[in-house]
Amino acid sequence: MTTEPMLKLDDVTKRFGGLVAVNSVSFNLQAGEVLGLIGPNGAGKTTLFNCISGTFAPEEGNITFGGEPITGLPPHMVCGRGLARTFQIVKPFVALSVVDNVMVGAFRNTNSTSAARDAAREVVEFVGLGRFADQKAGNLTTAGRKRLELAKALATNPRLLLLDEVMAGLTPTESTEIVQLIRRVSTERGVTLLVIEHVMKAIMALSDRIAVLHHGELIAIDVPNMIASDEKVIEAYLGKEYAHAHAG
Amino acid sequence: MAAIKGIHRNYIILAVLTLALLFLPLGLNQFQVNIAIFILYWAYLGNAWNIMGGYAGQFSFGHAAFFGIGAYTSTVLLVDYGVSPWMGMLVGAGFAAFFGLILGFLFFQFGLKGHFFALGTFAFAEMLRLIAGEMSILRTTIGIQIPPIRTDSWANMQFGQTGTNYYFVILGFFVVGMIITIALANSKLGYYFMAIREDEDAAAALGVNTMVYKIIAVMISSALTAMGGSFFIQFFTFVDPALAFGVAVSIEILLRPIIGGTGTVWGPFAGALLLTPLEEVTRHIVREPPPFLSFIEGRAGVDVMLFGILIIIVVIYMPDGIVGTLIKQWDRLRRGRQRSRTGTEPTIATPTQPLTDEQIKPTTEG
Fold first, then answer.
1. C-alpha angle with apex A154: B195 to B194, nearest 5 degrees?
2. Are A198 and A40 in contact (CB under 8 A)?
3. Which B residues, 309 through 348, put their C-beta within 8 Å of a C-beta on chain A?
4. Rounded-to-integer distance, Cα A149 and Cα A84, Å
5. Nearest by CB: B348 against A77, A91, A128
6. What are phi and psi of B208, to 5 degrees?
7. Could you tell me the pTM of the whole model?
8. Contact with chain A for residue B208, Cβ under 8 A
9. What letter would DSSP give residue B158?
10. Which of A49, B73, B123, B152 suits a disulfide with B159, CB 3.0-4.6 Å?
11. Alpha-carbon distance A5 to A73, whole Å?
12. Residue B350 pLDDT > 60, yes or no?
C-alpha cells in the first residue's frame, strides 16, 4: 500500500460567499481504481469535480495528481497533465461532425490532422458512435451526446477521467449500455475513473469504492457493500427503503 | 475519409478557379476588370475576417482598425521613406498583428465576449480613426496622396494605365488567402478555433488554451486585413482617417462573409461574388435611374438600403449564409438518402438486457 496514489485530495475546501460547497474533503484514488462519488443534490459533487479539473480554484487544501500538485491550474493545463472530465450538461460542438468533435480532444497528443482523425475514429468506434461518425453532433440523441462527451474526453488519452452523471436522462436500456461502456474504459483502456452518478444500481456495480458527500463533507468512503449498510449514508442519501431492499 | 476528400476538393476547386481567373481579364473591358478587382479584394478581406469572426467565433465589428494600420503604414513608408509597398505591407501586417495581440490580450483577459467584444473592436477602430486625425505624421484629417508616377511599376505596385495589373496582384492575394483558409480549416489550429467558437469551456476541458488560440486568430486575421489595406491604398492612391478607419470599412468587410456564410471556406468569396456587382449596379442606377425611379437620381444611400434589405432576407431565410445553407441542405439530402437505404433512422447500438425499474430508480431526487 505504499504506491503513490494517482489522485490525492488534502483538506480541499471551496466556498461561494458564505456557503461552504466543499468542506475539507480528503481522499486518495489509486491507479486503475473506479471510485464512485454519490450524495444528494447540492452535496458538492460537481463543485469538487470543478476544483479537481481546474474550473474553480479551491480556497484551501491541495490536489495532487500523479505526484505533482495541480491545485489551481487552469482546465487546459489539468487536461494537459492527463486528467480529463465530462460535463453533466453535455457540451458537444454542435456544428462539427462527431469525428471532428473527438479530433479536438485527439489533438492533445498530436499536431497531425490525419493522426488525430485516425485516433478519433478509433475512439468513436469504441464508444459505439461509428455509424454517426460523419454526422453533425447537433443531430445526435441524448444518449448519443453522452457517448460523444465520453469520446471527446477519452481522445485526450487521459490517465484519470472524471465522469459527471453520464447516465442522467437516459432510458434503462441506454443506461445499461453506458455502464458496460464505462467498465470497458476501465478494463480495456486502463483509465482510472472518478464517477458521479445517481443511479445506485449502476454505481454499486461499477465502483471499487464509493465516496459519499453530504453538505460538502465526505461522510463515508468504502467498498460498495459497506457503504450500502452505513448508517450515516442511509440517513443522508440512500434512505431506509434502499437499505432494506439491499439487505433482502 | 470524407474530410480528407473535402480538403483535396477545396484545393482542386481553387486551382481550377485560379486558372479561370488568370484568363478572365482577356474577355473583359476596363470597367468589368475593376468589378473583378473589387470582387477579389472583398473576398480576400472577407477571408481575413472569417478566420477570426467565422472560424474562431470572435465577431469583429472593427476590422477597419487593422485595415487602416496596414493602409497608413505602407503609405507613409512609401511616400516619406521611399520603401516599396511590398515591404511596407509586411511591416503593416506586423504592426497590425502586434495591435491584434494587445487588443486580444486586453479584451480576452477581461472576458469580453459576443456583443461586448464586437462593441470593443468597434470602439478600438473609432479610437484609431480619431487618433489618426490628430497625428501630423499621418497628415491629420487632410490625408495622404500617393504621388502618381509616369510608368507602371511593379516595385511600387502602381499601375496608372493598366489596371489589369492590379487585378493580378489582388488575384495573388486572394489565392494566398484561400490557401491559408483551406489549410487552416484542416489543421489543429483550425479545429481549436472552431472548438472555441462552439463552446469555450468544453474546448478548455480538452486541453485547448483558449486565451492563446483566440489571440492567434486575431493576429492572423489582423495581419491579412492590414495587407488588404495596403493594397487598397495603392489602388486608390489616397488615404485619410475615414477611408482607413471608418465604420463603413468595418461593415463592408464583415458583410460578405456573413451573407456568404461565416466559418465556411467559400462563404466570403460567395458573398463578394453576389454583393460587389450588386453594389456597382445600384451605383449605376443612382447615377442614371430609369424614368420611374427618377426621384432617386444622384441620391446617396440606395446601395446601403439594398444591402439592408438583403441582410434581412439572408438573416431570415439563410441564417447560415449562402454557402452554410447549401452545405446544410446537402447534408440533409445525404441523410435522407441514407435513411431510405436502411429503411429506418439509424439508432444508437442494439438494446441489451434493460435494468428493472427498481434498479434504475434514483433513491433520492435526480
1. 5
2. no
3. 331, 335, 346-348
4. 11
5. A128
6. -90, 125
7. 0.89
8. yes
9. B
10. B152
11. 19
12. no
Residue identified by cell 452518478 is A197
A150 vs A129: CA distance, rounded Å: 11
Nearest to A131, CA basis, from B5, B342, B329, B324: B342
CB contact under 8 A, B202 and A173: no
Alpha helix (H) residue ranges in B291-350: 302-317, 321-342
- Report the C-alpha gap between B169 and B171 in whole angstroms: 5
Which of A222, A195, A215, A164 lies closest to A23 in space, CA to CA?
Answer: A215
* Pairwise CA distance, residues B175 & B17, whole Å: 9
- Hey, are the CB atoms on A103 and B365 less than 8 Å from each other? no
Cβ pair B202:A200 closer than 8 A: no
Distance from CA of B139 to the nearest CA of A (A): 47
User: Residues B35-72: pLDDT tens digits?
Assistant: 999 999 999 999 999 999 999 999 999 999 999 999 99
Task: Decide if A100 and B3 are in contact by the 8 Å CB cutoff.
Answer: yes
Asked whether B32 and B218 are in contact (CB, 8 A), the reply is no
**CA distance from start to end of chain B:** 41
The tally of CA atoms less than 13 A away on the side-chain side of residue B266 is 18
Q: What is the ipTM of this complex?
A: 0.92
Contact A207, A36 (CB under 8 A): yes
Residues B103-135 have pLDDT tens digits of 999 999 998 888 899 999 999 999 999 999 888
For helices A113-126 and B2-23, the axis angle rounded to 10 degrees is 140
Give the whole-angstrom CA distance, residue A246 versus residue A235: 15
Q: CB–CB of A88/A146 below 8 Å? A: no
Residues 6+ apart with CB under 8 A from B229: B66, B67, B68, B69, B70, B71, B72, B74, B92, B244
Give the separation between CA A138 and CA A148, rounded to whole angstroms: 11
Question: How close, in Å, is residue A1 to chain B by CA atoms?
Answer: 32
